[in-house]
Amino acid sequence: MCITLICEAFCCAGMVCCKCACCCCKSCVDSTIKEKVKLTYIIMNVVMFWITVILFNYVQSIFDKFWFIIKCPANNNKCFGVSSIYRVSFTLGCFYILMILLMICKNKVSKAINEGLWLLKIILIVAGFIGSLYIKNLFFQNYANFALIISGLYMLFQIIMLIDVFYLWGQKWIRIYEESHKLNGCMACLLICTTAMLYGIAFTLNLYNFIWFYGCTVNLFTNFFTLIIIVGITAVQLLGWNPEGSLLTSSAMACYITFISYTSQASCPEKSCNLIIYRSYFGAIMSIIALVYLTFGTTDTNLLVSSPAIMDSQKLKDQDHEKQPLTRQQQLSYANKIIQEHQLEPYRGNQYIVFHFIMFINVVYMSMMFTNWGSSKITDSTGNSYKLTYMAYWIKMSTSWIASLLYVWTLIAPRIVKTRNFRTNI
Question: Is residue 18 within a helix (H) or strand (E), and if so which, with residue range?
Fold first, then answer.
């Protein structure tokens, strides 16, 4: 009996996973040009950072001729790894500032530059990075301090987006469960199994945190506090004060909070308190997820209907049509005009200005992720771009607590602020 139920659950999970994969592929193929352009910028950022990390940390010898320009400590190339991350972040940041200035024009030129000229953009970024090698290290030491402050603010923005992602995930699956009769049983199994699995991962990881980081009282308190948070958000969720919430959302938050706590304790420099020493790019991965959500999860619809320019064009067409019938050529001309206005509509407002500003903040934030919140200094002569420090420890721990507080607020806000509508349409 149990084996049959397990096999059925796996079959249902496989069916739903395949359907989700197909939906994802279809979403990418059927996505609008606006979404494809934004996704291209995100991919470009990721590729640039990873290429930089690989080149300057593992094949530094090909850049030996630049060490006398960068002037690393002890006259060697050991600081290339740290320096290169700040330099590529600075280069991409300048690129997005340039894009913001070009988007201010809000015309066809803005559209052409934003959606095309990709080879020229890549050449410009590469040339900018090479040019940054001639900038003294002192400038990038100050840039690291600037990045630390900006990244702290961006971190709050990212937490809010991730909470929204978890809510949308739960709402989407529950809606599929309620509307799809064929997949009703499968979705029920998938919802229960996924929620149980996420809670299992959270509690198991928290248990291992007690084992891996048992040497310090602070870590012991942190793990107990994280356990209390998980139980607390689940209890508040069961009260049902937020109709948009679900145990799936709470289980995803439990995993996120526990893993942030884990990465925080893994950043502890004391060997007696930290049995695991490794590089964690979890923050960078979460940042990518948040940007993808920003691209596909906040799409404006019905631009064709709402555009004032298009409405004026339609009124003009109707007036001319009342006077005399339109020829086929005139109809095509009107249609082309409406299409062009529709394509320019995202550039009439501040949509892309905001997007490129967020991308600017993101590339600054990524420099902190790849250096463990600036733990590695350009002046260091060790060549290690990822070090363990108490600053990174407390920043990550604060992230876990802030995420917990924000999520608890979303659960109790409908109960406290009853006059506001907290429902979302998906």
Answer: helix 2-29
- Which pair of structure tokens corresponds to residue 270? 């004391």
Kindly list the distances between the CA atom of residue 145 and the CA atoms of 329, 344, 373, 375, 383, in Å, as whole numbers in the listed order: 60, 39, 10, 11, 20
Q: CA separation (Å) from 255 to 86, 224, 226?
A: 31, 15, 11
Q: Which of 182, 248, 251 is nearest to 19 (CA)?
A: 182
User: C-alpha 32: how far from its chain's center?
Assistant: 20
- Distance, CA of 168 to CA of 138 (rounded, Å): 44
Separation between Cα atoms, residue 326 and residue 329, nearest integer Å: 8
Please count the residues of the chain: 426
Q: Per residue in 126-181, pLDDT tens?
A: 999 888 888 888 888 889 889 988 988 888 888 888 898 899 888 888 888 888 76
For the chain, the first-to-last Cα distance in angstroms comes to 38
How far apart (Å, rounded) are the C-alpha atoms in residues 243 and 147?
Answer: 38
Residue with tokens 């894009």: 99
How far apart, in whole angstroms, are the C-alpha atoms of residue 261 and residue 205? 10
Cα separations (Å) of 182 from 187, 215, 294? 9, 52, 32
302: left (phi over 0), alpha (psi -120 to 50) or beta: left
Structure token pair of residue 81: 């790894």
Over the stretch 247-277, which tens digit does the pLDDT of each residue have? 999 999 999 999 889 888 888 888 777 777 6
Crossing angle of the two packed helices 33-58 and 80-103, in degrees rounded to 10: 160
Tokens matching residue 221: 């308190």
Q: Residue type at 272?
A: S
* pTM, two decimal places: 0.73
